[in-house]
Design a protein that fits this description.
This protein is of the alpha/beta class. The chain has eleven helices and 18 strands. It has helices at 10-15, 39-51, 85-92, 94-117, 136-142, 151-157, 177-190, 254-260, 309-323, 363-379, 403-422; strands spanning 28-35, 57-60, 76-78, 129-133, 148-150, 165-169, 172-174, 194-196, 201-205, 208-211, 214-223, 240-249, 267-270, 276-280, 286-290, 329-339, 346-350, 353-357. Residues 31-377 form the FAD dependent oxidoreductase domain.
Length: 427
Protein backbone atom coordinates (compact mmCIF):
# COMPACT_ATOMS: atom_id res chain seq x y z
CA UNK A 1 0.00 0.00 0.00
CA UNK A 2 1.56 3.30 -1.12
CA UNK A 3 1.88 5.42 2.00
CA UNK A 4 3.56 8.82 1.67
CA UNK A 5 7.13 8.82 2.86
CA UNK A 6 7.88 11.30 5.63
CA UNK A 7 10.62 11.96 8.16
CA UNK A 8 10.08 9.28 10.85
CA UNK A 9 9.36 10.83 14.21
CA UNK A 10 11.04 9.47 17.30
CA UNK A 11 7.59 8.48 18.55
CA UNK A 12 6.66 6.43 15.50
CA UNK A 13 10.14 4.91 15.21
CA UNK A 14 9.95 3.44 18.72
CA UNK A 15 6.76 1.55 17.84
CA UNK A 16 8.12 -0.19 14.78
CA UNK A 17 6.56 -0.69 11.35
CA UNK A 18 2.90 0.09 10.74
CA UNK A 19 0.60 -2.80 9.88
CA UNK A 20 -1.96 -1.06 7.67
CA UNK A 21 -5.67 -1.71 7.87
CA UNK A 22 -7.47 -2.40 4.59
CA UNK A 23 -8.92 0.52 2.61
CA UNK A 24 -12.60 1.12 1.99
CA UNK A 25 -13.86 -1.44 -0.52
CA UNK A 26 -16.46 0.40 -2.55
CA UNK A 27 -19.52 2.36 -1.43
CA UNK A 28 -20.99 1.81 2.03
CA UNK A 29 -23.73 3.16 4.31
CA UNK A 30 -23.19 4.01 7.98
CA UNK A 31 -24.82 6.26 10.56
CA UNK A 32 -21.70 8.37 11.20
CA UNK A 33 -18.76 8.79 8.82
CA UNK A 34 -15.56 10.48 10.07
CA UNK A 35 -12.82 11.87 7.83
CA UNK A 36 -9.48 11.65 9.63
CA UNK A 37 -7.86 9.00 11.81
CA UNK A 38 -6.11 11.28 14.29
CA UNK A 39 -7.05 12.18 17.85
CA UNK A 40 -10.19 14.13 16.92
CA UNK A 41 -11.74 11.42 14.78
CA UNK A 42 -10.76 8.62 17.15
CA UNK A 43 -11.94 10.33 20.34
CA UNK A 44 -15.22 11.20 18.64
CA UNK A 45 -15.75 7.56 17.70
CA UNK A 46 -14.64 6.37 21.15
CA UNK A 47 -17.13 8.47 23.11
CA UNK A 48 -19.94 8.17 20.58
CA UNK A 49 -19.68 4.39 20.64
CA UNK A 50 -20.39 4.60 24.39
CA UNK A 51 -23.16 7.20 24.22
CA UNK A 52 -24.96 5.64 21.25
CA UNK A 53 -23.80 2.05 20.78
CA UNK A 54 -26.58 1.40 18.27
CA UNK A 55 -24.95 3.73 15.71
CA UNK A 56 -22.67 2.36 13.01
CA UNK A 57 -19.49 4.44 12.76
CA UNK A 58 -16.71 4.42 10.17
CA UNK A 59 -13.42 6.34 9.97
CA UNK A 60 -11.51 6.91 6.73
CA UNK A 61 -7.83 7.87 6.86
CA UNK A 62 -5.56 8.70 3.92
CA UNK A 63 -2.46 7.06 5.41
CA UNK A 64 -2.71 5.30 8.79
CA UNK A 65 -4.11 6.35 12.16
CA UNK A 66 -1.68 8.81 13.72
CA UNK A 67 0.21 9.57 10.52
CA UNK A 68 -0.30 13.32 10.99
CA UNK A 69 0.14 15.56 14.01
CA UNK A 70 -1.40 12.98 16.38
CA UNK A 71 1.65 10.75 15.93
CA UNK A 72 4.32 13.44 15.59
CA UNK A 73 3.54 16.19 18.13
CA UNK A 74 5.49 17.30 21.17
CA UNK A 75 3.58 15.06 23.58
CA UNK A 76 1.98 17.83 25.62
CA UNK A 77 -1.54 17.11 26.83
CA UNK A 78 -2.06 20.67 27.99
CA UNK A 79 -4.84 22.92 29.20
CA UNK A 80 -3.54 25.69 26.94
CA UNK A 81 -5.89 27.48 24.56
CA UNK A 82 -4.59 29.80 21.82
CA UNK A 83 -7.11 32.54 22.62
CA UNK A 84 -6.32 34.23 25.98
CA UNK A 85 -8.99 33.95 28.65
CA UNK A 86 -9.33 37.74 28.85
CA UNK A 87 -10.14 37.92 25.13
CA UNK A 88 -12.63 35.07 25.45
CA UNK A 89 -14.23 36.89 28.37
CA UNK A 90 -14.69 40.08 26.33
CA UNK A 91 -16.33 38.13 23.53
CA UNK A 92 -18.36 35.52 25.41
CA UNK A 93 -18.48 36.65 29.05
CA UNK A 94 -16.30 35.76 32.01
CA UNK A 95 -18.21 32.65 33.06
CA UNK A 96 -18.04 31.00 29.63
CA UNK A 97 -14.35 31.89 29.27
CA UNK A 98 -13.62 30.33 32.65
CA UNK A 99 -15.65 27.26 31.68
CA UNK A 100 -13.62 26.85 28.48
CA UNK A 101 -10.32 26.79 30.32
CA UNK A 102 -11.70 24.55 33.09
CA UNK A 103 -12.93 22.06 30.49
CA UNK A 104 -9.50 21.95 28.88
CA UNK A 105 -7.84 21.42 32.25
CA UNK A 106 -10.23 18.54 32.87
CA UNK A 107 -9.39 17.13 29.42
CA UNK A 108 -5.76 16.76 30.51
CA UNK A 109 -6.93 14.42 33.26
CA UNK A 110 -9.49 12.71 31.02
CA UNK A 111 -6.78 11.70 28.56
CA UNK A 112 -4.94 9.99 31.41
CA UNK A 113 -8.12 8.43 32.82
CA UNK A 114 -9.23 7.04 29.46
CA UNK A 115 -5.77 5.71 28.61
CA UNK A 116 -5.53 3.95 31.97
CA UNK A 117 -9.08 2.55 31.70
CA UNK A 118 -8.33 1.09 28.26
CA UNK A 119 -4.87 -0.22 29.13
CA UNK A 120 -3.08 2.19 26.79
CA UNK A 121 0.46 2.68 28.12
CA UNK A 122 1.35 6.06 26.64
CA UNK A 123 3.99 7.17 29.21
CA UNK A 124 1.49 9.63 30.73
CA UNK A 125 3.05 11.78 33.47
CA UNK A 126 1.21 14.82 34.80
CA UNK A 127 4.05 17.01 36.02
CA UNK A 128 2.65 20.33 34.78
CA UNK A 129 4.43 22.80 32.55
CA UNK A 130 6.92 25.62 33.15
CA UNK A 131 7.34 28.61 30.85
CA UNK A 132 10.65 30.24 31.71
CA UNK A 133 11.54 33.92 31.57
CA UNK A 134 15.13 34.23 30.42
CA UNK A 135 15.36 37.88 29.33
CA UNK A 136 14.22 41.06 31.07
CA UNK A 137 11.52 41.55 28.42
CA UNK A 138 10.21 38.04 28.98
CA UNK A 139 10.19 38.62 32.72
CA UNK A 140 8.18 41.84 32.33
CA UNK A 141 5.54 39.98 30.32
CA UNK A 142 5.23 37.29 32.96
CA UNK A 143 5.17 39.29 36.18
CA UNK A 144 1.68 39.43 37.58
CA UNK A 145 0.57 36.34 35.65
CA UNK A 146 -1.23 33.55 37.45
CA UNK A 147 1.26 30.86 38.41
CA UNK A 148 4.29 33.17 38.35
CA UNK A 149 7.27 31.80 40.30
CA UNK A 150 10.60 33.43 41.07
CA UNK A 151 13.94 32.49 39.57
CA UNK A 152 14.85 30.02 42.29
CA UNK A 153 11.60 28.09 42.06
CA UNK A 154 11.60 28.11 38.26
CA UNK A 155 15.22 26.91 38.15
CA UNK A 156 14.42 24.11 40.60
CA UNK A 157 11.87 22.80 38.10
CA UNK A 158 13.91 23.34 34.94
CA UNK A 159 17.61 24.11 35.28
CA UNK A 160 18.09 26.21 32.17
CA UNK A 161 20.63 29.00 31.95
CA UNK A 162 19.77 32.61 32.74
CA UNK A 163 16.40 31.91 34.39
CA UNK A 164 14.83 35.07 35.84
CA UNK A 165 11.43 33.59 36.70
CA UNK A 166 8.69 31.51 35.17
CA UNK A 167 5.02 30.65 35.01
CA UNK A 168 4.04 27.19 36.22
CA UNK A 169 0.75 25.46 35.48
CA UNK A 170 -0.23 22.04 36.79
CA UNK A 171 -2.56 21.50 33.82
CA UNK A 172 -0.23 19.58 31.53
CA UNK A 173 0.96 16.00 31.13
CA UNK A 174 3.84 14.65 29.09
CA UNK A 175 3.06 11.54 27.07
CA UNK A 176 4.09 9.45 24.07
CA UNK A 177 1.67 10.67 21.39
CA UNK A 178 2.06 7.76 18.97
CA UNK A 179 1.45 5.18 21.70
CA UNK A 180 -1.74 7.04 22.58
CA UNK A 181 -3.08 7.30 19.02
CA UNK A 182 -2.21 3.71 18.08
CA UNK A 183 -3.72 2.37 21.29
CA UNK A 184 -6.84 4.46 20.86
CA UNK A 185 -7.31 3.22 17.28
CA UNK A 186 -7.16 -0.39 18.49
CA UNK A 187 -9.65 0.27 21.27
CA UNK A 188 -12.07 2.03 18.91
CA UNK A 189 -11.85 -0.85 16.45
CA UNK A 190 -12.57 -3.33 19.21
CA UNK A 191 -15.71 -1.34 19.99
CA UNK A 192 -17.03 -2.06 16.52
CA UNK A 193 -15.94 1.10 14.70
CA UNK A 194 -14.77 0.43 11.14
CA UNK A 195 -11.41 2.02 10.28
CA UNK A 196 -10.37 2.24 6.64
CA UNK A 197 -6.75 3.26 6.08
CA UNK A 198 -5.06 4.12 2.81
CA UNK A 199 -8.32 5.84 1.83
CA UNK A 200 -7.98 9.47 0.82
CA UNK A 201 -10.94 11.81 1.24
CA UNK A 202 -11.57 13.79 -1.93
CA UNK A 203 -14.58 15.81 -0.86
CA UNK A 204 -17.21 16.00 1.84
CA UNK A 205 -20.77 16.91 0.99
CA UNK A 206 -23.97 16.71 2.95
CA UNK A 207 -24.60 13.06 3.73
CA UNK A 208 -21.44 11.60 2.21
CA UNK A 209 -17.66 11.39 2.23
CA UNK A 210 -16.27 10.74 -1.23
CA UNK A 211 -12.92 8.92 -1.26
CA UNK A 212 -10.60 7.39 -3.83
CA UNK A 213 -11.94 3.94 -2.85
CA UNK A 214 -15.65 4.63 -2.77
CA UNK A 215 -18.26 6.76 -1.05
CA UNK A 216 -19.38 6.56 2.57
CA UNK A 217 -23.00 7.66 2.89
CA UNK A 218 -24.07 8.71 6.37
CA UNK A 219 -26.66 10.73 8.23
CA UNK A 220 -23.80 12.54 9.95
CA UNK A 221 -20.37 13.28 8.48
CA UNK A 222 -17.47 14.70 10.48
CA UNK A 223 -14.42 16.59 9.19
CA UNK A 224 -11.45 15.86 11.48
CA UNK A 225 -8.50 16.52 9.18
CA UNK A 226 -6.74 19.31 11.14
CA UNK A 227 -3.56 20.40 9.30
CA UNK A 228 -4.56 18.41 6.21
CA UNK A 229 -7.89 20.20 5.82
CA UNK A 230 -6.37 22.40 3.10
CA UNK A 231 -6.12 19.35 0.83
CA UNK A 232 -9.89 18.93 0.85
CA UNK A 233 -11.81 20.36 -2.09
CA UNK A 234 -13.43 23.65 -1.11
CA UNK A 235 -11.53 23.96 2.20
CA UNK A 236 -8.11 25.29 1.14
CA UNK A 237 -8.62 28.56 3.02
CA UNK A 238 -10.26 27.08 6.13
CA UNK A 239 -7.06 26.24 8.05
CA UNK A 240 -3.52 27.25 7.15
CA UNK A 241 -1.09 24.32 7.35
CA UNK A 242 1.92 25.69 9.21
CA UNK A 243 4.85 23.41 9.91
CA UNK A 244 6.34 22.66 13.30
CA UNK A 245 9.60 20.71 13.50
CA UNK A 246 11.13 18.56 16.23
CA UNK A 247 14.32 16.81 17.28
CA UNK A 248 14.98 14.12 19.87
CA UNK A 249 18.34 13.55 21.51
CA UNK A 250 19.91 10.27 22.40
CA UNK A 251 19.25 9.38 26.08
CA UNK A 252 21.14 11.86 28.28
CA UNK A 253 23.35 10.81 31.19
CA UNK A 254 22.16 11.24 34.76
CA UNK A 255 24.76 13.99 35.28
CA UNK A 256 22.92 16.12 32.71
CA UNK A 257 19.53 15.39 34.28
CA UNK A 258 20.82 16.41 37.71
CA UNK A 259 21.34 19.87 36.26
CA UNK A 260 18.34 20.02 33.87
CA UNK A 261 15.82 18.71 36.38
CA UNK A 262 12.32 18.03 35.01
CA UNK A 263 12.12 15.33 37.69
CA UNK A 264 8.36 14.91 37.31
CA UNK A 265 8.66 15.14 33.53
CA UNK A 266 7.37 18.69 33.49
CA UNK A 267 7.06 20.05 29.96
CA UNK A 268 8.97 23.26 29.32
CA UNK A 269 9.17 26.33 27.10
CA UNK A 270 10.26 29.92 27.48
CA UNK A 271 8.52 33.23 26.92
CA UNK A 272 10.04 33.98 23.50
CA UNK A 273 7.61 34.95 20.75
CA UNK A 274 8.58 32.10 18.38
CA UNK A 275 7.12 29.08 20.09
CA UNK A 276 9.39 26.34 21.43
CA UNK A 277 8.34 23.31 23.45
CA UNK A 278 10.06 20.34 25.06
CA UNK A 279 9.69 17.36 27.33
CA UNK A 280 11.80 14.77 29.12
CA UNK A 281 10.77 11.47 27.62
CA UNK A 282 10.20 8.31 29.62
CA UNK A 283 13.57 7.00 28.40
CA UNK A 284 15.42 10.20 29.38
CA UNK A 285 15.76 11.99 26.06
CA UNK A 286 14.94 15.59 25.34
CA UNK A 287 12.21 15.82 22.72
CA UNK A 288 12.22 19.43 21.59
CA UNK A 289 10.43 21.38 18.90
CA UNK A 290 9.51 24.77 17.60
CA UNK A 291 7.95 26.83 14.86
CA UNK A 292 9.89 28.81 12.29
CA UNK A 293 9.56 26.69 9.15
CA UNK A 294 8.05 28.66 6.27
CA UNK A 295 4.43 28.54 5.16
CA UNK A 296 4.23 27.15 1.62
CA UNK A 297 2.40 28.90 -1.17
CA UNK A 298 -1.14 27.67 -1.82
CA UNK A 299 -1.26 25.79 1.52
CA UNK A 300 0.85 23.05 -0.07
CA UNK A 301 1.70 20.01 2.03
CA UNK A 302 4.61 17.81 0.91
CA UNK A 303 6.70 15.16 2.72
CA UNK A 304 9.87 17.13 1.89
CA UNK A 305 8.58 20.06 3.97
CA UNK A 306 8.94 17.90 7.11
CA UNK A 307 12.68 18.50 7.01
CA UNK A 308 14.25 21.97 7.16
CA UNK A 309 17.93 21.59 8.12
CA UNK A 310 18.27 25.22 9.24
CA UNK A 311 15.38 24.81 11.70
CA UNK A 312 16.79 21.52 13.03
CA UNK A 313 20.15 23.22 13.57
CA UNK A 314 18.44 26.11 15.32
CA UNK A 315 16.60 23.73 17.65
CA UNK A 316 19.84 21.96 18.56
CA UNK A 317 21.57 25.31 19.14
CA UNK A 318 18.70 26.37 21.39
CA UNK A 319 19.10 23.25 23.53
CA UNK A 320 22.83 23.97 23.79
CA UNK A 321 22.14 27.59 24.77
CA UNK A 322 19.43 26.65 27.27
CA UNK A 323 21.16 23.80 29.05
CA UNK A 324 24.87 24.07 28.30
CA UNK A 325 24.97 20.70 26.56
CA UNK A 326 25.83 19.57 23.04
CA UNK A 327 23.56 16.57 22.68
CA UNK A 328 23.73 14.05 19.88
CA UNK A 329 20.51 14.27 17.89
CA UNK A 330 18.96 10.89 17.11
CA UNK A 331 15.78 11.94 15.28
CA UNK A 332 14.58 14.90 13.21
CA UNK A 333 11.03 15.26 11.90
CA UNK A 334 8.14 17.64 11.38
CA UNK A 335 4.65 18.09 10.04
CA UNK A 336 1.79 20.54 9.52
CA UNK A 337 -0.66 21.81 12.10
CA UNK A 338 -3.89 23.66 11.44
CA UNK A 339 -4.24 27.37 12.18
CA UNK A 340 -7.55 29.21 11.76
CA UNK A 341 -7.53 32.85 10.68
CA UNK A 342 -8.50 34.10 14.16
CA UNK A 343 -6.53 31.40 16.06
CA UNK A 344 -9.81 30.16 17.59
CA UNK A 345 -10.28 26.38 17.56
CA UNK A 346 -13.83 25.25 16.99
CA UNK A 347 -16.18 22.28 17.14
CA UNK A 348 -19.71 22.04 15.85
CA UNK A 349 -22.55 20.18 14.15
CA UNK A 350 -24.91 21.78 11.63
CA UNK A 351 -27.36 19.96 9.36
CA UNK A 352 -25.55 16.66 9.69
CA UNK A 353 -22.08 18.12 9.12
CA UNK A 354 -19.71 18.04 12.10
CA UNK A 355 -16.24 19.43 12.41
CA UNK A 356 -13.50 20.10 14.94
CA UNK A 357 -9.97 21.45 14.78
CA UNK A 358 -7.78 24.47 14.37
CA UNK A 359 -5.95 23.70 17.60
CA UNK A 360 -2.86 25.80 16.72
CA UNK A 361 -0.56 23.08 18.02
CA UNK A 362 -2.26 22.44 21.37
CA UNK A 363 -4.50 19.62 20.21
CA UNK A 364 -3.65 16.60 22.37
CA UNK A 365 -6.08 17.44 25.19
CA UNK A 366 -8.26 19.76 23.10
CA UNK A 367 -9.01 16.95 20.64
CA UNK A 368 -10.23 14.81 23.51
CA UNK A 369 -12.60 17.58 24.60
CA UNK A 370 -13.67 18.09 20.99
CA UNK A 371 -14.36 14.37 20.59
CA UNK A 372 -16.53 14.29 23.70
CA UNK A 373 -18.34 17.41 22.53
CA UNK A 374 -19.00 16.04 19.04
CA UNK A 375 -20.27 12.81 20.58
CA UNK A 376 -22.73 14.84 22.69
CA UNK A 377 -23.86 16.86 19.68
CA UNK A 378 -24.33 13.82 17.44
CA UNK A 379 -26.17 11.89 20.15
CA UNK A 380 -28.40 14.92 20.82
CA UNK A 381 -27.20 15.38 24.40
CA UNK A 382 -27.10 18.84 25.90
CA UNK A 383 -24.20 19.19 28.31
CA UNK A 384 -21.86 21.76 29.79
CA UNK A 385 -19.53 20.90 26.91
CA UNK A 386 -22.04 21.80 24.21
CA UNK A 387 -22.39 25.28 25.77
CA UNK A 388 -18.67 26.10 25.59
CA UNK A 389 -17.73 29.17 23.53
CA UNK A 390 -15.87 27.26 20.82
CA UNK A 391 -19.00 25.26 19.92
CA UNK A 392 -20.44 26.55 16.66
CA UNK A 393 -17.68 29.12 16.20
CA UNK A 394 -16.86 29.92 12.58
CA UNK A 395 -13.50 31.49 11.77
CA UNK A 396 -13.36 33.62 8.66
CA UNK A 397 -11.38 32.16 5.81
CA UNK A 398 -7.75 32.98 5.17
CA UNK A 399 -7.00 35.49 2.44
CA UNK A 400 -6.43 34.20 -1.11
CA UNK A 401 -2.90 33.83 -2.46
CA UNK A 402 -0.49 35.53 -2.74
CA UNK A 403 -1.76 37.61 0.21
CA UNK A 404 -1.84 34.54 2.46
CA UNK A 405 1.74 33.53 1.65
CA UNK A 406 3.08 37.08 2.13
CA UNK A 407 1.16 37.68 5.36
CA UNK A 408 2.00 34.44 7.16
CA UNK A 409 5.69 34.45 6.26
CA UNK A 410 6.00 38.15 7.09
CA UNK A 411 4.56 37.37 10.51
CA UNK A 412 7.12 34.58 10.97
CA UNK A 413 10.00 36.93 10.10
CA UNK A 414 8.62 39.64 12.40
CA UNK A 415 8.39 37.15 15.26
CA UNK A 416 12.02 36.14 14.83
CA UNK A 417 13.02 39.80 14.75
CA UNK A 418 11.16 40.56 17.99
CA UNK A 419 13.00 37.74 19.73
CA UNK A 420 16.34 38.95 18.37
CA UNK A 421 15.70 42.46 19.65
CA UNK A 422 14.86 41.15 23.12
CA UNK A 423 18.09 39.21 23.57
CA UNK A 424 20.44 40.94 26.02
CA UNK A 425 23.36 42.59 24.27
CA UNK A 426 26.81 41.28 25.11
CA UNK A 427 28.66 43.73 27.31
Amino acid sequence: MGYAMTAPSFWLHTLGPVTPRPPLDGDADVDVAIAGGGYTGLWTAYYLSQLAPHLSIAIVEAEYCGFGASGRNGGWASGLFPVPEAKLARRYGASRATAMHAALADAVDEVGRAAAAEGIDCDYAKGGTITLARTPAQLRRQQGSAGFVDAAEASAICGATGVLGGVYSPDCAALHPAKLVRGLASVVEQRGVAIYEGTRVQRITRGQIVTDHGTLRAGTVVRALEGYTARLAGHRRALAPVYSLMIATKPLPESDWERIGLRRRETFADERHMIIYGQRTADDRLAFGGRGAPYHFGSRIEPSYDRVPAVFDSLRDTLTEMFGIKPEIAYRWGGPLGIPRDWMPSVGLTDGFGWAGGYVGDGVAAANLAGRTLADLIAGNRSDRTALPWVGHRSRRWEPEPIRWVGINAALHATNLRDALERPRAS
